[in-house]
Structure formats: structure tokens, C-alpha cells
Design goal:
Layout (H helix, E strand, L loop, with lengths): L16 E7 L3 H12 L5 E5 L7 H4 L31 H14 L6 E3 L3 E7 L4 E6 L4 E9 L21 E4 L13 E5 L3 H10 L5 E5 L6 E2 L8 H9 L1 H16 L2 H5 L4 H15 L3 H7 L11 E2 L3 H4 L5 E4 L3 E5 L2 E4 L4 E3 L2 E4 L7 H4 L4 E3 L6 H4 L18 E3 L12 H22 L3 E4 L1 H15 L27 H7 L8 E4 L1 H16 L12
Parallel strand pairs: 1-2, 1-6, 2-3, 4-17, 6-18, 7-16, 8-9, 8-16, 9-12, 10-11
Antiparallel strand pairs: 4-5, 5-6, 13-14, 14-15, 19-20
Length: 527
């Protein structure tokens, strides 16, 4: 089932209007669509730039690619899967799950493939969003949901000479499975989440593997146990057992949040992680290079049983001197040492700052509001889901909603519930749109940044959680239970609820008063 193509769907024209437009058919967009159907809202379209669903799990197919959250937890709560083969599923098993869920919930009629959104504008006179695509198509909608996620724009390092390299260059998220690595001299740049997984897989194939590390990551053991047929049969026939297993995994993961808030508690875990390095890496000099100098949890914690032993191989070298330049057939480090290579693999992750991956995306809200302007000093929102100045716009996995300890699917489901509550509230009030008050958004973000203090994320390291000035725009600094509680219901006083008809009536009344010699400033009418 993996990597089925549905290119015929990409030829479907877009309707002129719909109630809800969702951008992206990954975990977030599909969850949004499924729950809209469950809520009785069927007038929606999902726009997907590729020719299949899956998002991250469609695009990342490098050797060893797998999730670092347990399979039974990294799945929808409403679409349990008793067939997971092991504790941490590989990419193709996750993609198969996404494909099956898409078909089980009959989502394909709502998806339009081959439509990459590149512009959108809100019209305060009609209360509608106009969404445009690179292909020139347009569609208008009352509600606009950005569910493209942050992990779809590969980060390409700015290294002198990279464009002049004559060999093969590929990013881990764009793996070329038709390229034969056997016998090649390979340089891998980066030692993050992707590299930790693909390096052990390719090391036995290649002649030489040079691993260029900027800073080491904390790596802990991975539970590789498989689910046997007896366990799967029990999960299949007794769903309550599967749900109980999922709940146990959730609670275990959620307990990991406490060392994050209290760095002193991380010392014990850090000692165990150091012991893991000593047990797995033979060379003391290499062990030292692989041992981070920052508190565990400050950057993303990685899980692997194979990564550290890879550096015991005679054909693998760990290079920490940095890269000075790339030549046609080699890489020169900052000490002037030149190493020949045939292939460069970029394990350099993704552009996760929205100001980076949305820089070519026009998003204009109320008059005077454009997303790049409003986010000039950093991405901010309210509950990581709505943004002041952009009515009826929602973002899944928005600012400060990512996690370092549990499943992002839990957060997505919380956001989706909140979005549906917002839509229902608009309908109940009989208004055209809502807009979170800027003072409430500012208050919320001040709280979030205040809660970052004295956590492991502010203990001194630099990570992709942060923007250049050190502000953490990525992580949710509390328990997932708190986030779910805060997104369970919409607190109406934090929003302006705007009726266009009432606004027009007030403008007419204002003109009448002015004609009678009375001056009065007209403001948008809120309910």
C-alpha cells in the first residue's frame, strides 16, 4: 500500500467557494478533515501540493527512518491500530497507517492533489479568505486552516563550494533510492534526528563514511521489541486492552516532562546517557567528541541502539573541526585537511522557523496585517492556533505547540477540537468572523516565555527550538494535559466577534448622525 499515487485527483478543478480550506494532507490536515465530518461540517477542501497524503511520512524515506514516539501513541485516538509490528514503527508502516485511515474515513473526495498554496488574503467586507495556488487557481472560504506543518522545507547549509561539487548531493528528506551507495566515499553533514537513523544503515555499504558533526546530541537506548501475533490478536479482539496500553505509554512519556522543568532532575538521566556512550563506543577520544556539553533535554533527545556502535567501524570517522569549503571531489575542514568523497548526504534537518518556510507565502489578514510583518520579531499566536489580525485563520502545530516529551498527535487533536469549537461559536453568535484580541495574545505569549525560564531549554545550548535571538518559538512549556484543558472550550471574552451586517448598519447610522452635525468615530461592530 505504501506510496500509492493518485495523480488523477490533481486534475480536479477547485470549486469557487467552500466553507473550510485546509492546507496539507498530513497527520494534521487529515485529522482536521475527519473531525469536521464527525461534527457535521462537510463543506471543506484539503489542498495538498504533492500527489499523495502523508506529509513528513510520505517525503522521508531514508534508510532506517522511523518515529521516536511509540507506535500506539503516534496515531489518532479515534483510529487505533492493533497491527503495529513493533514499539517504534518505521516510516513505511506509518505511511500505510495514514493511507488506510484516509480510505477508512473516506477522505479522498475532499482532497485536491497537486495544488500548492502560495497566497491568501482576508476580505473584511465579506468575511472570506481568498486562497491562491502556484498553478493560478483560487478558492474562497470562510475558514482557513494551515496544516502544512514545519517539517517539509529541507534546510540546505550555506557552505562555500557546495554548488560546485561534482558528485552526488542529496538531503535526507529527498533520498534517492536509485543511487547506489555501495563502495562510495560518503560525507554526511549533520548528526541530528535523521542522521542518527540513516548512518548505521549505510555504514556497512560504503567504502568510507566521514561524519561531520557540529555539536553532539544526547542519544538514549531504543526499545526495539516487537508486538507478537498473540499481542496483536488481543489488541484486535479486545480494544480496551489496546487503549490501556496506549494510556500507559502516554503516562510514561508525560512523566518525562518533569526533568525539563527542573534541570536538576535531568542529572540522573544524563549520567545514564553518559554510561550508554561508554558502553557502546570503544575509542575514548571518539566518546569525548560524542558527549554533549549541555544539559540533556536542552536539544532534542534522540533514541537509537545502533548510532554509537557505528563509530567503532574502521571505515567511519567523526570530524568535529567544521567545514571550510567543498571542492569538486572533496571536503576541506577548518584545519585545512582535505578528504575525498563521491557523495554528500545532508542530514541538516528542516527550516522550522515559520518566517523561513513561509517567506514566499503571502498571508494578509485585516488591513495593515501581513504575517511576515506581524512576525518580524518572531512567530507568535494564541494557544499556538490563532493569530491576532488574521480572522478565521487557524494553524496546526503553530508557535509553541511542539513537544520534547510526548506525542504531537495529542496536541493536534486538542487543536482540532478547539478549531471546531471556534467555528461553532461563530455560528452560534451569528457573526461572520472572530479575531483574538492583541492584548490577550500578548499576555499569553508573555506567560509562555516566562515559563521557559529555568527549564532545560534555557540552560545554555542553541537548538532548532530557538530563533537567532534565543527566543523559543517552538516548544510548549508545560504538560499536554494542561494544553488540552486550555483548548477544551473557547473563552469568548478573549475575542472580537464581528458581524459585517451590523458593521454596515453602524456606518450608515454614523453618516446619518454626521449629516445632522454630530461627529462620531465609527468602529467595527462586535457581538
Amino acid at each position: 500500500m505504501t506510496q500509492q499515487k493518485h495523480t488523477q485527483d490533481s486534475q480536479q478543478a477547485l470549486p469557487a467557494t467552500t466553507d473550510v480550506v485546509i492546507v496539507g494532507a498530513g497527520f494534521g490536515g487529515l485529522c482536521m478533515g475527519i473531525q469536521l465530518k464527525e461534527a457535521g461540517i462537510r463543506d471543506f477542501i484539503i489542498l495538498e501540493k504533492a500527489d499523495e497524503v502523508g506529509g513528513t511520512w510520505r517525503d522521508n524515506t531514508y534508510p532506517g527512518c522511523a518515529c521516536d514516539v511509540q507506535s500506539h501513541l503516534y496515531s489518532y485516538s479515534f483510529a487505533g491500530n492493533p497491527e503495529w509490528s513493533k514499539r517504534y514503527a518505521s516510516w513505511h508502516e506509518i505511511q500505510d497507517y495514514i493511507l488506510k485511515t484516509t480510505d477508512d474515513y473516506q477522505m479522498r473526495p475532499f482532497i485536491r492533489f497537486g495544488h500548492e498554496v502560495n497566497r491568501s488574503q482576508f476580505d473584511s467586507k465579506t468575511g472570506l479568505w481568498t486562497i491562491g495556488t502556484k498553478g493560478g487557481a483560487e478558492i474562497r472560504a470562510r475558514y482557513f486552516v494551515l496544516a502544512s506543518g514545519p517539517l517539509h522545507h529541507p534546510a540546505i547549509p550555506d557552505i562555500p563550494g557546495l554548488d560546485s561539487f561534482k558528485g552526488k548531493v542529496m538531503h535526507s528528506a529527498r533520498w534517492d533510492h536509485g543511487y547506489d551507495l555501495n563502495g562510495k566515499r560518503v560525507a554526511s553533514i549533520g548528526t541530528g534526528g535523521s542522521a542518527v537513523q540513516y548512518l548505521p544503515e549505510i555504514a556497512p555499504q560504503v567504502q568510507q563514511l566521514d561524519v561531520y558533526q557540529r555539536s553532539p546530541a544526547w542519544v538514549i537506548p531504543r526499545d526495539e521489541r516487537r508486538y507478537g501475533e498473540i499481542r496483536k490478536t488481543l489488541f484486535r479482539n479486545f480494544p480496551a486492552l489496546r487503549k490501556l496500553h496506549r494510556a500507559r505509554l502516554y503516562i510514561t512519556n508525560e512523566m518525562r516532562v518533569w526533568p525539563i522543568f527542573h534541570p536538576r532532575l535531568a542529572v540522573a538521566l544524563q549520567s545514564l546517557a553518559k554510561l550508554f556512550i561508554r558502553m557502546k563506543v570503544k575509542d575514548p577520544a571518539v566518546r569525548k567528541k560524542l558527549t554533549p556539553d549541555y544539559t540533556i533535554g536542552c536539544k532534542r533527545i534522540l533514541i537509537s541502539n545502533k548510532y554509537y556502535p557505528t563509530f567503532n567501524r574502521s571505515n567511519v570517522d567523526l570530524i568535529t573541526d567544521g567545514i571550510q569549503e567543498i571542492r569538486e571531489h572533496s571536503i576541506v575542514d577548518r584545519n585545512g585537511v582535505e578528504r575525498p568523497c563521491d557523495t554528500i548526504i545532508l542530514g541538516t534537518g528542516f527550516i522550522v522557523d515559520p518566517r523561513g518556510f513561509m517567506k514566499d507565502f503571502t498571508l494578509d489578514g485585516l488591513p495593515g496585517h501581513s504575517i511576515m510583518k506581524d512576525w518580524a520579531n518572531g512567530a507568535e499566536g494564541y494557544l499556538g492556533t490563532v493569530v491576532s489580525g488574521f480572522p478565521n485563520l487557524f494553524q496546526l502545530v503553530g508557535p509553541n505547540t511542539a513537544l520534547g516529551h510526548n506525542s504531537i498527535i495529542f496536541m493536534i487533536e486538542s487543536q482540532v477540537n478547539y478549531i471546531i469549537q471556534c467555528i461553532k461559536k461563530v455560528q452560534e453568535k451569528g457573526v461572520d468572523y472572530f479575531n483574538v484580541k492583541i492584548e490577550e495574545q500578548n499576555k499569553y505569549n508573555a506567560e509562555i516565555q516566562g515559563r521557559m525560564k529555568n527549564t532545560v531549554w534555557t540552560s545554555g545550548c542553541k537548538s532548532w527550538y530557538q530563533q537567532a535571538d534565543g527566543k523559543n518559538f517552538t516548544i510548549w512549556p508545560s504538560s499536554t494535559l494542561e494544553y488540552r484543558a486550555r483548548t477544551k472550550k473557547v473563552f469568548a471574552p478573549h475575542f472580537d466577534w464581528v458581524s459585517i451586517a451590523a458593521q454596515k448598519t453602524e456606518v450608515v447610522a454614523d453618516k446619518t448622525e454626521k449629516s445632522a452635525g454630530k461627529e462620531r468615530k465609527s468602529e467595527p461592530a462586535s457581538v
